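Aim 2 progress. For rfcs, the working sequence is reproduced below.
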Amino acid sequence: MSLWIEKYRPTEIKDFEGSDKLINFFNTTIKKKILPNILLSGSAGTGKTTFAKLLANGLNDQNKFLVKEYNASNDRGITLIRNEIKNYSSMLRRTILILDDVKI
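Predicted structure tokens for this construct:
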């Protein structure tokens, strides 16, 4: 099923079906080139990961950012993710981290 999701996932914001408020947030963020910390929550299949990827790609149009994605429920727990984040913080490149399926 994962391959199907990746095959049909929207790759441009014009193909993303979401609320006008969310689309306006996307456009404003891309225009200003400022990425705040955001938390997207909701039921499975509502577009949270797709929106995060579109936002990261929209901001990364000139490859200024390192974009990394982790499935926090599968990637051996928070310790691994914390160590990875420490590695990125020492780089001279701004980083966008997408943490998917975080369990609180």
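The helical segments are 2-8, 20-32, 48-59, 78-89. This observation will guide construct design in the next reporting period.
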